[in-house]
Each structure stands twice: as C-alpha cells, then as structure tokens.
Amino acid sequence: MDKTSPSGPIGIFDSGYGGLSVFKEIQQLLPQYDYIYLGDNARVPYGTRSFDTVYNYTKQCVFKLFEMGCNLVILACNTASAKALRTLQHNDLPAGKKVLGVIRPTTEIVHNYTKTNKIGILATTGTVKSESYKIEVHKFNPEIEVFQHDCPFWVPLVENNEINTEGAHYFVQKDIRELLQQSDQIDTIVLACTHYPLLLPVIEKYVPKGVTVISQGPVVAGSLQDYLHRHAEVEASCSKNGQLAFYTTDDPRDFETKAQIFFGKPVDASHISV
Length: 274
Known about the structure:
With 274 residues, the chain is an alpha/beta fold. The protein has 13 helices and 10 strands. It is globular, with a radius of gyration of 18 Å. The two termini are 25 Å apart. The model has no long low-confidence stretch (mean pLDDT 95).
C-alpha cells in the first residue's frame, strides 16, 4: 500500500440493487467509515452477460470509484466477483488500491455449517456457469461436494417488490425442490446472490428442517472487519467520518425508490457516468 495515498471512502459496487443488502450489513457493523455505493443500474443485469462484458463493465465502475478517492472497493455482486475479480486483482490494480469480492468470504466459512459435506448453491445463471463457488469451496475444503441451481426469476421478483406474491412462493418452492433433488444429504444452502436474502421469509417456508441457509451480508461484513484488522495499512487508507454517498448510472429517483427495499432506509442518490 502506498503510504502517501490520502485516506478515502470504502467503495461498494454492484450491478444494481442487490449489493445494498451487503452494504447494509457492512455499514451496521462498521459505521465509522465513509462509503460510496455505485450501482450500474443502466447496464443491469450482469448475470446473463459474457465474461468479457462483465469484466469491462466492472473495471469501468471500480476505476470510477478509485477516481472518487476510494482505496478499497468491495464487489458486492456475485456475478462481478465470479467473472471479473481475479483478472482485476492480477492485472489492473494501481499501486495502493485493493478490490475484494463476496465469494471467497462465503466459501471460507461453509465448512462451519455442514455436517454432511454436501452444500447447495442458489445463484444467478452467470454465477452457476462460472463454477466459481465450486472452485473456491474446493480450494479450502476439497472434501465438500457442491450442488448448484440457478434461479432466473428470483431477481425480478425482488426488484419488482413481489416478494410475498403467489409467483414468489411458486418459484422459490420449485427452485429449492430442484436443488435438493440433486442430493438428499444437502444440509447447507448458500444464497449466492445479494438479492436473495430479501426472499428469506419465503425461502424458510420451503427449506426442510435441519438445513441451514447462509446469507452473504453478515458473512461479508464480518470478513471485511477481519481484513481491516489484519491489514493496518489498508485500514489507515479508509476515511472515518461516518458519511454515505449513493450513485447510480441510471435514474437516481428510480434508484432511491427501489434502494430502500434493500438498504432498509431512505437513500439520497445522484447520477454518475462511468
């Protein structure tokens, strides 16, 4: 870390709104830091796009956050973490800048929950196709078997605030059943999309007793806290005034309306071009 870098906010990036569910947990656990949230809502969804497209979009947004003074950026997006994080970390980071994702913190802790060593991943099509969860889980715990299922209707249900509708119950029940049909020994399910925790009241109705459901927000927040404790130079580069700023590449008024569903309180957003 370049010791001459002035301190700046922690950047939180997502392709849309889902990352706000992670940001909410981070800000509650670590309220002393400044944060900038950037949602690339004009180009959502990322989940169905190619690796190259997701990488290019993610890089543009991350570098915008760097320009705005962030020295540390969290990719609060499973698709960006799956398709762009590794390349960004290996090839693109300027001196003194760090980027972290949401997949590794989640895969590091799943062994604490499973007794059968069989876990399920519920995710977008892009995240499932990337195989990122299988790869990362096996790095830390090669004995764990990973079963995946994509849930293409869950994100639209959440973003259209149809969480308690008949359609939500139908698709949640159907997708959980199809995941669990892959193995009757799955005892842990990871919600590997930042939208999915908003469906938890519905999800819990259809997950059998004894199966643990893991939401990423608290896991990522705790991992970030630990990371900052272990990396004093990165922690020193994060400013601490308790200030929040929200930016979107789309209409800020529309963003504010939907963001409240994920963040749990009103937000004041501004438009930004990347």
